[in-house]
Amino acid sequence: MKRRTIIDLFEESVSKYGDKDFLLEKHNGQFEPTSYRMTRERALRIGAGLAALGIEYKDRVSILAEGCNNWITSELGLLYAGAISVPLSIKLEESNDLLFRLRHADVKAIFVSRNQLSKIRRIAAELAELRHIIVWGVAKEELGEGEMTLEELLAMGEGRLSTEGDAFMAIGRSLQNDDVATITYTSGTTADPKGVVLTHRNYTANVEQALSVMSIPPSWRTLIILPLDHCFAHVVGFYIMIACGASVATTEVGRTPMETLKNIPINIKEVRPHFLLSVPALAKNFRKSIETSIRKKGKTTERLFNLALRTSYAYQADGYSKGRGWRALLKPAVVLFDKILYSKVREAFGGELQFFVGGGALLDSELQRFFYAIGIPMFQGYGLSEATPVISTNAPTKGDHRFGSSGRLVKPLDIKILDEEGRELPAGEKGEIVIRGENVMAGYWKNPESTADTVRDGWLYTGDMGYMSKDNFLYVLGRFKSLLISSDGEKYSPEGMEEAMVDKSPYIDQIMIYNNQNPYTIALVVASKDNLGRVLDERGIKGEERSREAARIVAAEVAKYRTGGVYADEFPDRWVPAVIALADEPFTEQNGLVNSTMKVVRNKVEKRFAEAIAHAYTPDGKAVDNARNIEAITKLLA
Question: In sequence order, which residues have a C-beta less than 8 Å from that of residue 270 and are 6 or more positions away?
Fold first, then answer.
């Protein structure tokens, strides 16, 4: 097999696209470019600096920082040095979360941004293996023992390259396909985090696979708005861009996470990206922002926009059947709406945006219809860290996208859908998704038992339920560990229903549907404080009655999915929640109830709200305005 490491991939692109813009970062009020060649030079100095510090082949080096040029060049640099990257989420707030990962991976050096330095300082004394803390954005005189600036490391690297350049370059050239590139810790939605071991060939193979279903011209730009520690951002955010000679911008880092978040819409207009990576939580925020701006233009514009959406929805059908048959008659109206409405919406995204690539949790088909209508399709994909991560995706080419599906499989890749006995199922029947390909992880770090359970004879058992359609679209239904289990043993995946309820109801911010061999299904709901407050004010409801009315409004939203409701046909009636338990606080990263991609961590939610869930199965808990619910919603609305 031909050797193709990440270093090989990058070196080939530098040779081909050397003077072309690779990285774009905002300085002095504008985005300034760094070429492929200049990126390589800086990465080599970083890598040689690490070698000068004593970092050797297979040593683990972490990065805890906001997405920026330094993040990308630091990872490339440590890979040139033969080290293994252990990327960490900046959303890890608890010292225990960081301690576990840094200890488990035996990290010897870490790159840290100014904003994250205090987290490492709090735990550095407890990290016996950690030798070097390399910081950017901080002056040398502000640093303590064991800390150094990135500029100092670069200077050391320059010295090493001038005296032992050939020996250092030989390290990168000696790397093989099965050498480990990263240890990426899973976010643990149903269990403790595991260190997913991904090799150089895992990454380069997944780049090749992803490009089998989607092409990126060298002239394109993207703005990475997702955390760089995710392998989704690694592969689709910058390794694919490297392979294609395209350009990568990173969001301007603010003094606080909120300030960085506020920079996203500003940066999108400045960078004018051709595509963006997204997850459902971001997609929902984008849609809310669009709808809010439309409402501000008055009732007439809002009514016209809603008419445009209905017309576009009818024309596009499920995306796959766009404009077919009688729908062709709607094309002139859709073209007109695009000219007078949608084109102006797209200007807020820079005017060049062709599509989103969606990953993370399941994306409700209603959201897909919305973005398709306004001319910026959101092509939902499917993957997981253990698959580096891309397994399938919808794509822009005609016949390669259908709402509600996770698209076409990347190539080459083998897939089986297995029943509970391990028997392969035919198209259309649902079971566990099992895949085989060069993108399948090497295993879990220091966890041979879980590795053996997850990867068997080269096949990755994903733990996800789904099926292949007869025309080769993959449909992913959810995690087996998230399944509802009724008292008679029947199982159902709730994630599609959860996404739909949050997306279609202005009064439900978050929801977790639950049934663990119980007589009926319940929903734990985080109500929308702002939207409920607004409607209660409009209705003139005051005092204690506000909480009761708020509880009834939420219950009415869920009731729309039961027999006789406006969405009655969307989900089987027996699985629609019969009882509502109201949460007294949102699910956030701070309280550990969602992970860094905003997926609900079900086992932690179940533990935190165990009393509320148990109460929902009592006679008193069946009424939505029971005392426990009223106390919870009162606290939330306060």
Answer: 26, 30, 31, 350
